[in-house]
Amino acid sequence: MRRTITTALTGALALGLAGGAPLGARAADQAIQVSFPATMSAQPLDGRLLVLLSSDPSAEPREQIGFDLKTQMVFGQNVEGLTPGAKARVDAAAFGWPVRSLSAVKPGKYRLQVVLNRYDTFRRSDGSVVSLPPDQGEGQHWNTKPGNLYSEPVEVTIGPDGPATLEVSLDRKIPPIPRKADTPYVKHIRIKSELLSKFWGRPMYLGAHVLVPEGFDTHPQARYPLMVFHGHYPDDIGGFRTTPPDPDLKPDYSERFHLAGYNRIQQQEAYDFYRRWISKDFPRFLVVEIEHANPYYDDSYAVNSANLGPYGDAINKELIPEIERRFRGLGQGWARFTYGGSTGGWEAMATQVFYPDMYNGAFAACPDPITFRQYTVIDLYKDKNAYVLEGAHRSIERPGFRNYLGEVFATQRDINSYELALGDKGRSGEQYDIWQAVYGPQGPDGYPKPIYDKVTGVIDPAVAAYWREHYDLTHIVERDWKTLGPKLQGKLHIYVGRGDNYYLNNAVYLAQETLESLKDPPYGGEVAYGDKDEHCWNGDKTQPNAIGRLRYNTFYLPKILDRIAKTAPPGSDLTSWRY
């Protein structure tokens, strides 16, 4: 779809405007030549060149790219074997967002910046060879990934008054991210996964941040329940602070929640959690947040998959047992629970479904689509096109992102075009691409087989059928209820706002119908909705969404304790952790 630039064709990017370049170029003829010096890398590099143009001077262009109305422009193009000093030409053929091509950029002055998202070659055990961006401890973000090269922003003129060629040198490199140090309450663990290393053909690691209870060191005989808080890549335990809020913190404004001073509210909530955590008679348990970023995304969705490998088994059979060994977990299914929101909501439910005996309850808030009959607003099994609703004489673009009033700020086509500019073959590191990587089969080229064409939106029904049998959680629960029912009864709890920005409530409606139709035994769980709540409502009807989302680690605790009291086998340890 997008042509690959090689050193044999053009070369690399060298930043800094070319002096004496001819003027009077038409926008369609303008090009950007990019190179990097040997001081950045003595070896040839592969990756995705991202040319960024911005009319907003408030921040670097690399910090201004998204799929909403505020986004600035990005144009993406692959490079292979780019050698130091060689020049890669980026021109009108590069795929752009929100402007499709450099040739369509309105004439004027812009700030130009270029980033090279570097790829490595992976030779996987299944024989496939793929070129992907390895995570470097940043959670799979191209604009902050250590080792990525970039240029300083410079002002340029696009259009007839500008030079025919703009030259840019990638003379900056994003530095490494230091690992977090342990504290009395927050510990960090990192293990080499033998399962993942075998699949990927190189050493692969899993990590976790563990919040240990008050009295962990002074009660060496205590064993603890385990609460796995799933979500996006965590740089540490979130929402936990042992000091009062910073009195000098300048209040910010949350556009998401229309709330002034939200940063102060977050610090206060984190400190309040700490005070509850150490309070007398508070239940003692382990909270775990997992690091499982991979070459496709900031986490793996905690399941085994054809494109990412056996992350489900690696987490549940390698990492969790090691955490329980090191931090004295009870190590029994009745004493493990999982919860999370959005991606973490899907993961919580999937973990419970695919490892039904290992956990005693899942609390899935605002989960990613738990049935693909409503893949946000798309029925992957019946619809022919993911981008448009077709009528007899007209078509309508499908929405992708809204507010609770129903105002649409991005369509399905918009979000997928944004991803395609960042990377082809599912390599954007963004949402729809990771769904495709997790849920889909491998294609003949070793990359995820597309569920639909990224340009046209045409759905592949064969891929949709694969998704259904392997990862449609609602379908799987219904299909396998005869064997799953006795293991899942009373364990599935789902919460979502009816105003979810990504339409994730649609799938929950259908899932609820299915769950409530199950018999012998009845599913025995809970589904609840927030009236006008946006993404990501977690079931707390007593607080606004802005506050409830900060209380995951305590909000489900009464339900968890009730579940333990009712289901723990006779003779189970219900006391050593209640000091």
Describe what this molecule looks like in 3D.
This protein has 579 residues and is an alpha+beta fold. Strands 1, 4, 5, 7, 8, 9, 10, 11 and 13 form a nine-stranded mixed beta sheet that branches. The chain is globular and about 80 Å long. Mean pLDDT is 94; it is low at 1-26.
The CATH homologous superfamily of the largest domain corresponds to: Alpha/Beta hydrolase fold, catalytic domain
Q: What's the Cα radius of gyration?
A: 25 Å
Number of strands: 29
- Biggest sheet descriptor: 9 strands, mixed
Average pLDDT: 94
Shape assignment: globular
Structural class: alpha+beta
How does CATH name the architecture of the largest domain?
A: 3-Layer(aba) Sandwich
User: At the first level of CATH, what is the class of the largest domain?
Assistant: Alpha Beta
- Tally of alpha and pi helices: 13
Which residue ranges are poorly predicted, with pLDDT under 50 across at least 5 consecutive positions? 1-26
As for the CATH topology of the largest domain, it is Rossmann fold
Provide tags for this entry.
3 domains; Rossmann fold; 29 strands; 579 residues; globular; eight-stranded mixed β-sheet; disordered N terminus
Write the layout of secondary structure elements.
Blueprint: E1 4-6, E2 14-15, E3 31-35, E4 45-54, E5 73-82, E6 88-90, E7 95-97, E8 108-123, E9 129-132, E10 149-150, E11 154-158, E12 165-169, E13 172-173, E14 186-192, H1 194-200, E15 205-211, E16 226-230, E17 253-254, E18 259-260, H2 262-277, E19 286-291, E20 304-305, E21 309-310, H3 311-326, E22 336-341, H4 343-354, E23 362-365, E24 388-390, E25 395-397, E26 399-402, E27 408-411, H5 412-422, H6 431-439, H7 461-471, H8 473-479, H9 481-488, E28 492-497, H10 505-517, E29 526-530, H11 545-548, H12 552-555, H13 557-567
Parallel strand pairs: 1-5, 3-12, 16-19, 16-22, 22-23, 23-28, 28-29
Antiparallel strand pairs: 2-12, 3-6, 4-5, 4-8, 5-7, 8-9, 8-10, 8-11, 10-13, 14-15, 15-19, 17-18, 20-21, 24-25, 26-27
Helix pairs in contact: 8-9, 8-10
